[in-house]
Every structure is written in C-alpha cells, then in structure tokens.
Design a protein that fits this description.
This protein is mainly beta. It has no helices and 11 strands. It starts with 10 loop residues before the first strand and ends with a strand.
C-alpha cells in the first residue's frame, strides 16, 4: 500500500480504498471533515511531522518542488514497512473524512463514517515522507 505510484487522478482499489499521487503545494496536507462547521487547524510545531486538534490533523510531506506524494485512504491496514506516526480520534460531524491540500482542495474522501472517526497515519519515513497511508474506522 505504500508503493510509489504515477502522478495522476485518484484511483480506487478493493472496497473503499483510494490512492492518488500528487505534487503537494506547500508540503502539507490536512485530514478533516470538510463539512465541519468549526475546523481548528493545529498549530505548527517545528520538528514535528504531524500535529493534531480535535477536528484536524496536519501532516508535513515532501514539498512539490522535491517530488510527488503517494496517498492512500481507506479502512484496511498498511504494510509492515510503514511507520505508524499517529493514532487518534477526529471529529467528523458530517460522517466524511477527506485529505485536503493547503488550498483546501479535496484530494481523497471517505463517506459514511461515524461522527468521531479513529484514524491511523502511516508514512514511509518521518521527515518529508513521499508515501502516506491513512486508515479510518
């Protein structure tokens, strides 16, 4: 699940699994419910790749000038070589979870979740990962 992909449009695998390979503006992505009426973006912490608030997770990634990021979003687990960088609960009041860019463009989205969703974030490395896998349940 953390294999490199080819830049292009999101693809679907088995069940709800989705994957996209993109150049990431500003080297940061956010995990949130885009319909949440009061999203709190977590404060940036130098040296930390992941920051959280009850309604949002920010993930520092490889910036667009340095290459592409392969993203996976689904409800199934990651492979053994992936590093678990976060396990948390996030508010999803509209039962939707999306990966969005710094310009709030939706990259991948899951629907029909609970109003609080358990998420696990895996990466291929701690600093500037170019593969990130997000498991939601």
């Amino acid at each position: 699940m953390l294999s490199q992909g080819t830049p292009g449009q999101p693809t679907r695998g088995a069940s709800d699994a989705q994957q996209a390979t993109i150049a990431v503006p500003d080297g940061i992505i956010f995990l949130l419910d885009p319909g949440h009426p009061n999203i709190t973006v977590p404060a940036f912490e130098p040296g930390c790749a992941v920051a959280t608030s009850p309604s949002c997770v920010s993930i520092a990634t490889v910036p667009e000038v340095d290459g592409y990021l392969t993203l996976y979003l689904g409800s199934k687990g990651a492979t053994k070589e992936a590093l678990l960088v976060l396990a948390a609960l996030i508010d999803t009041p509209t039962s939707t979870l999306a990966i969005v860019s710094s310009q709030f463009q939706i990259i991948l989205v899951l629907h029909d979740l609970a109003i609080r969703t358990s998420v696990e974030v895996y990466a291929n490395r701690l600093a500037s990962p170019d593969c990130v896998c997000i498991i939601a349940s």
